[in-house]
Design goal:
The protein is 56% helix and 13% strand. With 287 residues, the chain is an alpha/beta fold. Strands 3-2-1-4-5-6-7-8 form an 8-stranded mixed sheet, sandwiched between helices.
């Protein structure tokens, strides 16, 4: 199988590594607007070839769009026009609403499978690519009924070759759930980083006092601003809804602390501890 991967960053690069290693791809063509990324991918053997978008799409059995969601919106209609009749296109975007709306009336809509692998790190670029990044992670396929059966089967084979758990979801539900479990957690991390940088003028003190808790909480603040700007724009309504709830809980903590009501803060934290058994059960399900 010849696979074209558009976007040779963390996700696209990691896909290339794993799909070549596990034999799912016979030939991998890379596409990236950065000549430096293409050079790196070719030099390290991440891809077998690099080409411009149209040429790469014409040659592919499967096209994977691993670029920010606004870029997916911009290029997906053209990609579907260029592919061969039997070829399939899928995307790795973090939001689905605008993509699915855009594709609703495209003549080749049924050759497109909307997907989102729930995997990543705070790093970006091809040098951040990792073998095994997707192992035991969730792969979400959205609105599968609007894609050809053989196209969905190919996407399923792709994710199973990466040892991912496949979840089928309505695209609208996906964006709402992603806002809760992914998008707002990144905002929290960005806000904490901004707060610390504003209040702590001595950089040395940050590093001297920081321990595992701070590092793990603020880790996501190193994520790509371009990617997350696009996500927040594409999923604005859901994110605002979640932020209102989040800010309400923050205000509760502030009010109790300001009033010296520390028993109430204890009760809030005890209630929050209920997330522990839920996460443990999820781990059991995965294993």
């Amino acid at each position: 199988m010849t696979i074209t991967i558009v976007g040779l960053g963390l996700i696209g690069g990691s896909l290339a590594l794993d799909l070549k290693r596990n034999g799912f791809a016979h030939h991998v063509i890379g596409v990236d607007e950065s000549a430096e990324h293409c050079t790196y991918a070719l030099r390290t053997g991440m891809v077998d070839d690099c080409a411009d978008l149209q040429v790469a799409c014409i040659q592919a059995d499967l096209v994977i769009l691993a670029v920010p969601v606004k870029a997916v919106v911009a290029i997906l209609p053209k990609v579907l026009n260029w592919i061969r009749e039997e070829a399939v296109v899928t995307d790795m975007g973090s939001t689905k609403g605008e993509i699915l709306s855009l594709m609703a009336n495209h003549p080749n809509r049924r050759r497109f499978v909307a997907a989102h692998p729930m995997a990543g790190t705070e790093h970006s670029g091809p040098a951040a690519a990792l073998n095994g990044l997707f192992h035991d992670k969730a792969a979400i396929i959205c609105d599968a009924e609007n894609s050809d059966e053989d196209a969905v089967r190919l996407a399923e084979r792709l994710f199973r070759s990466l040892f991912m758990r496949i979840i089928y979801m309505d695209g609208t539900d996906h964006d709402m759930h992603a806002a809760y479990v992914s998008h707002v957690s990144h905002i929290s991390s960005f806000v904490l980083a901004l707060t610390v940088l504003e209040k702590e003028k001595s950089e040395a003190n940050i590093f001297n006092l920081a321990s595992g808790g701070f590092a793990s909480t603020v880790r996501l603040a190193k994520s790509s601003p371009r990617m997350w700007r696009d996500v927040y724009e594409q999923n604005q309504e859901n994110i605002l809804d979640v932020l209102d709830s989040y800010l309400g809980k923050m205000q509760q903590f502030r009010d109790h602390i300001a009033s010296g009501e520390f028993e109430q803060t204890y009760q809030l934290m005890e209630t929050a501890n209920a997330i522990g058994p839920i996460l443990e059960q999820q781990e059991k399900v995965k294993n």
